[in-house]
Every structure is written in C-alpha cells, then in structure tokens.
Amino acid sequence: MKAEELKRNPICHCSDSKPKLLQVKIINRCTGNCWFCIDKGNFAPQKVDADKMIDAILSEPDYSTVDITGGEPFLDFEVLLKVLKAIRPYKEYIVLNTNGSLLTEEKVKQLNGLVDFLKIGLQHYDEAKNAEIIKAKISFENIKKSLKNKQFKVWFNMVVNKSWENEKENFINNLVELCQKLNVDGVSMNELRYTGVNNGYEQYAEGYIKGYDFFEHLNLIKPKTSEQLITEGCIDDFEYKGIEFRLKRLCGYKFKSNVQTFKVIYSDGLKVDDWILDI
C-alpha cells in the first residue's frame, strides 16, 4: 500500500487532528553543541526583539499552546521573562526548553506560574557522557537543587542516538533512577529526524537507531512496522517505575498535514508556517 493511502492515526505526529502549536525560537545562541542538532545551518536571525515576538505570539489567539526553544533560552533570561509575563494571561499551555546548563533555584522560582512544562535536553543518564554528547558540562546536582521548589512539570527531552547503542539492557533503568533522584517527572524520547526524502521514504540521519530497542526487554511497548506506526500511531505513552515516558518513533514516510496546526516565530518576530531550513 502507498503511504498516502494509509489512514493516519489522530495522534500521529503528522495528523490533521493535532492541537495548534506556536513554536517560538527565542534565541539562536546555545551553551551546547550537539552533533545531531536539527537547527544547525538553518535560518537563525541574530536580532532578538522581545516586543515583536510578543506581538507575533498574541496575534495568534487560536494557538493556545506555546513551545519556547532556542538555542538556549536561559542565555537571555530577562528577555525570556518579559515574553512569558506578556503571553501568560492569553495562552493555555506554555512549554520551555533548556539544556539545564544555566538553571538556578532563583530562576525556577521566577518561572513558577509562568510555565506549565519544562523540558531539559538531557542526552545521557551519566553526567560525564552527557557532557561529551552535548559539548557542555551540566551539573546534575545543580539540576536537583534548582528544581527543589518547582511548581510545574519537568521532563527530560532526549534524542535516541548511537552513543547509547551498547547500553540497551540497562539504559532505561539507570535513566529512571536519575529522574527519581533529580525530581524529574518524565522522559520524552525522539528518534533522530529524517535528512531527506527519496521516493516517499525518509532517509534516516547518520547514527539513527530505533527507540524500541531500549524497551524491548522490558515489554513496555510493541514493535511496529512503518505502516503500523502510521495507522496505530507513532507516539507511545506509558509509565515505568513511577516515571512517565513518551517515545516518538519515525514511520519512514514524510507527510505534510492538510490543516495548518503549527507556526514558527523567530527571535526577530518573524512569523512563518514552518521552519526555514538550509540557509
């Protein structure tokens, strides 16, 4: 069966039924340098204009969910606070992304009431290996201390990558132990993005490995073919040892939604219907 003939699951990443999302690229500088970063080489305006970002966000009242990303948003914390305070009364759900390098207890207190969800871009449960992957030293003890008085949900946001390959049997259990230690509520794991499309099929990025491989021995999720990922859904939500998990798998196809459910706002206030790539 051809990909376009398959009936896509409503919660599928490319479904027309997804909730409307504004993704705000609030800054283009970062404290890390992940080799798999999907933002490398893409459009990155150097200008940061908080007022124009706020205007662009508030000009989309139907988009009730805002996902703030970078770069590293904490590099200009005053700009971040200004944007958050301005949009909070008008947006139902606000997500903030960080690699955790600049987290402090005081900053977390200031974020209480302004964000609903903090995603920390952790890439390994071992502190030294995490630093090697993201090319920045992140103190796990500092994360623990910083999150002590949080009033929002915190998840680790991870890219399934080849540096984990020899740890399939113990990776998840070690990760759960770290979550429990640092007061982190859950883990989002995403397979490496595609690098192009050939005859309707995605070309996987170098270093791609299957997220399912890390859960197979735990019997938490089932294997799926590309067709099953489309018809049954490419997202698995489950709980393990009190920690929430979400695994986003690649189906091998590239679809474009027929309904506009996603817009991007850049740091200079530019608003577009999708990421501007390959600049």
Alpha-carbon distance between the two ends: 35 Å
Strand content: 15-25%
The overall average pLDDT, rounded, is 88
Helix coverage percent = 10-25%
Major β-sheet annotation: 10 strands, mixed
Number of DSSP strands?
12
Structural class: alpha/beta
Order of helices and strands: EHEHEHEHHEHEEEHEEEE
SS summary, helix count: 7
The strand order across the widest sheet is 9-10-6-5-4-3-2-1-11-12
Please mark out the parts with pLDDT under 50 across 5 or more consecutive residues, or reply none: 194-203
Radius of gyration (CA) equals 19 Å
Shape: globular
How would you characterize the overall build of this protein?
With 279 residues, the protein is an alpha/beta fold. Helices cover 22% and strands 22% of the residues. The strands form 2 sheets. Strands 9-10-6-5-4-3-2-1-11-12 form a 10-stranded mixed sheet. The chain has a two-stranded antiparallel sheet with strand order 7-8. Helix 1 links the parallel strand 1 (21-25) and strand 2 (65-69). The protein is globular, with a radius of gyration of 19 Å. It starts with 20 loop residues before the first strand and ends in a 7-residue tail after the last strand. Mean pLDDT is 88; it is low at 194-203.
